[in-house]
Amino acid sequence: MKNCYDKLEPNIYRKIARKIQHVAPILDVGCGDGRLVNFLALKLVKKIFGVDASDVGFEKARREAELKGVSHMVEYVKTDASHLDMFSDGFFGGVVSVYALHEFEDSLVVLKEIERVLKTGGTVVIVDFVKGGYAERLWGERYYAPAEIGAMFKDAGFKQAKASFLYNDIILVSALKI
Ligand SMILES: C[S@@+](CC[C@H](N)C(=O)[O-])C[C@H]1O[C@@H](n2cnc3c(N)ncnc32)[C@H](O)[C@@H]1O
């Protein structure tokens, strides 16, 4: 079903791409059907991994990757984001995640895993809905307040997180691992 947030997606994806254009490889946590993974591979021409606890979107993701000619650059892995055991410490130059933070059973544990798999100087970019907006009324889900996300970044070890609003109730939080 289409909703008012769909039309924001291209702009959000472009903003994410700008923030991670100089780092590699990239991991998308909670990648769903791989729209962002395939977009980033096409735009940045580098290795992009997508992980998700469910593989229901992977068939579509791989089909789209074929169509876009980026199959050799993308890899989809079914795993719980709180245990990214297949990736060694400091493996990734960038980690991104869109509309997934609120879904993790323990978001702080996932942010700590993201911090672990990021190399020093690497970038994390998280986009999610925040508490009290239209998305909450539309889907009846529970989202974090911006201050809660900021506190989680800090607890996960990211010292200087920067936040900006992409829309009334969509926040982008980015940080460097220093
Ligand atoms: C709202 S969807 C967003 C999907 C995609 N990022 C997008 O923007 O369309 C949230 C995704 O997080 C995934 N997810 C939830 N808990 C997870 C976990 N513990 N580990 C990995 N993925 C998880 C879900 O399976 C789902 O695909």
Provide the low-confidence segments as ranges: none
Secondary-structure element order, N to C: HEHEHEEHEHHEE
Instruction: Kindly name the structural category.
Output: alpha/beta
Mean pLDDT: 97
Q: What's the name of the CATH homologous superfamily?
A: Vaccinia Virus protein VP39
* Helix residue percentage: 25-40%
Oligomer: single chain
Approximate shape? globular
Distance between the termini: 41 Å
Supply the CATH class: Alpha Beta
Number of helices: 6
- Nearest-angstrom radius of gyration? 15 Å
The number of domains is 1
Q: Secondary-structure map with pairings?
A:
Layout: H1 9-20, E1 26-29, H2 35-44, E2 48-52, H3 58-68, E3 74-78, E4 92-98, H4 107-117, E5 118-129, H5 134-139, H6 146-155, E6 162-167, E7 170-176
Parallel strand pairs: 1-2, 1-4, 2-3, 4-5
Antiparallel strand pairs: 5-7, 6-7
Helix pairs in contact: 2-3
Bound molecules: S-adenosylmethionine.
The site of S-adenosylmethionine has 17 residues, from strand 2.
Question: Would you mind describing this structure in some detail?
Answer:
The protein is an alpha/beta fold. The chain has one domain: Rossmann fold. 34% of the residues lie in helices and 26% in strands. The chain contains 6 helices and 7 strands. β4, α4 (107-117) and β5 (118-129) form a beta-alpha-beta unit. The model has no long low-confidence stretch (mean pLDDT 97). The chain binds S-adenosylmethionine (SAM). Residues 30-32, 35, 51-54, 80-82, 98-100, 103-105 line the site of S-adenosylmethionine (SAM). The site of S-adenosylmethionine has 17 residues, from β2.
